Amino acid sequence: MIVYRELFSIERDLSISAKTLYAVSNNLGKHYHKAKLPKKNGGYPFLDARNESDSCKRFTDTPMWNSSLSDRIGPMTRVDKKDPNYIWYSPVEADSFEGLPPAYIETAEFDCLHDDGILYAQLLRNAGIDVTLNETKGTMHGFDIATKAPTTLAAMSQRIAFMKRMI
Prior knowledge:
This protein is mainly alpha-helical. The chain has helices at residues 2-5, 7-14, 18-30, 54-58, 67-77, 86-89, 114-126, 150-166, and strands at 103-110, 131-140.
């Protein structure tokens, strides 16, 4: 997460302490589902490992990440659907979202994973989970690598505002 990359400039610019950011992000993660964490690396997670969304079909060659890369890495990181921790690999396929904390979901407009983020937000909302959805415009996957760009700074402000609300 970008928060860790520039922790101290965030601390200065947005008046939130590095310790607080770290604590909030770690504590939210501990409450994610009631499943036990896998004992070994469970694979690279997707929101929807099926890779069948319209954005997956449209963005096959975008920079940073695209559905062609998802298709290539998927078989190397696949987690068996019978594994009780499969929901960590493909959360939209979970049977229940009960007990999840409020969620911040951010999508990039030209990202093969865009529709997966929208779907996950809708599933969480349907389950009564409070969701903050930030659909960034004119962006691709990994847009926040340009740490000083106005779009990144705006997204950072929204991320941090969400974390402050969770304190």
